[in-house]
Amino acid sequence: MTKLFEVPLYPYKRSADQDASTPVRHPVVVIGAGPVGLAMAIDLAQADIPVVVLDDNDKVSVGSRAICFSKRSLEIFDRLGCGDEMVHKGVVWNVGKVFFGDRQVYEFNLLPEDGHKRPAFINLQQYYCELYLVERIRALQAEGKPIEIRGGNKVANLVERDNHTVITVETIDGTYNLEADWLIACDGAGSPTRKMLDQDFVGRVFEDNFLIADVIMKADFPTERWFWFDPPFNKDQSALLHKQPDGVWRIDLQLGWDIDKEEEKKPENVIPRLKQMLGDEVEFDLEWVSIYTFQCRRMEQFRHGRVIFAGDSAHQVSPFGARGANSGFQDIDNLGWKLKLVLSGKAPETLLDSYTFERELGADENILQSSRSTDFITPKSETSRIFRDAVLDLSEHYEFARPLVNSGRLSVPCVYDGSPLNGPDADTLPQRTRPGSPLVDAPVGNGWLLDTHGGEFHLLGIGCEVPADSEFHGVHVTGISIPRSEVGAELKARYLGEATKAIYLIRPDQHVAARWTRLDQEGIEAAMATVLAKGNS
User: Fold this and answer.
1) What is the pLDDT of residue 536?
2) Yes or no: is domain 4-91+115-201+296-365 CATH 3.90.580.10?
3) Which CATH architecture has domain 202-294?
4) Are 485 and 465 in contact, with CB atoms under 8 Å apart?
5) How far apart are CA 244 and CA 131, in angstroms?
6) pLDDT value at residue 322
7) Architecture of the domain defined by 431-531
8) How confident is the model over 317-344, as pLDDT tens digits?
């Protein structure tokens, strides 16, 4: 049976650029048709920014690779027009369980409160994620949106100029050049773009290896995240189990540092390990196997002139915590609207400096959490192991110990505290929705708050009225007013607290820019100038 990742979805097709007498200039070129690159292109095309995606491949990724997509990523997918497809296919989960040896020590719920459209996580093979993103691109193309994806186009060289980048592309028909006002590198952890610019990662490589296997089987395990410390089937190591669609299960087994990776990947060595875990009576087939060495590293700077890095090309973390692809989607969510403003002349290039500030902050937060998780999972000394095991023993009976257990702090969106784009803060309002924070969803009427925001600037009046349409510094701001009679308990708790009304200025990426407890036109004007990197002009 032909698998999805064996079918070309964007096969090579000769483009007009290859026959041009001089290199054609494009506003934006994205290198890499993985999930992050595809999402970046969709975001730009929805804003009517012409974009070309280049990839030397012509199909979705082999194996499932990333599988855990967070609530924030699902909210971004909603804005990109493909959230429903992801959730309908994916396996929804909120609950995780932690085991020590052969006993469960406790469980946790990642979304214990009501009033959210999306769950804490879905599990979905990366190839499905890429498929739905490609299908969304096809739908945009049918609408006449300016987006193109070129398979079989390998970027072989880059030359940076003052106001553009010259790109050399190899195809089966030969080599051609094109130019990009802005080049976005989404070409993965081994990023050739990064190497062409003579850039590297800084950070830690952990001396441990993990076997990651996708197994097709019928099993009665519930739809939960199960993590074992020192299980009987993988003594002195760890293990992780996740359910995916189509009867596929993700299994991670810690192997240690001094191993032969190629030997460990062979089926005759993988299958006995899995039988130890699952039992001899369970029938299964291997779909995909790899060996992973944990790395927590990032580029020192995500922007180099007109070349901007996003996703794994900019930063790497261990997979425990699902912070890789999810942080990549937050990268493009942050970058798209800023590029639109710069390209339209409504904001200076210095606005893009806030991308590096905010997303490098996000990368540092993810690296910190991922490093702590890896240190707890794989203690580097006997003292550390004794401490870890004591915490696990205590957590079975005492709630105070459970926050100390770290089987992978799961991905949450970064709050951009200290961002140069943050404006005034009425700090009597709830801290949860302070400037720099992502919007927190809540029921509004018969729908959801987040479905009414995104892609443009909004002025949100809760318990009061705001202008339906405004313009500040040449940028349109749409007003949404929610009268006091329609403010539900969730909206009040998350946005008002003890206040009776509030006004929130919301960025196109659904992050709070500023907030007040009364309508302040001069304050909004100044806050918009800050968000647009125009100072107090």
Assistant:
1) 47
2) no
3) 2-Layer Sandwich (3.30)
4) no
5) 16
6) 81
7) 3-Layer(aba) Sandwich (3.40)
8) 887 778 889 999 999 999 999 999 999 9
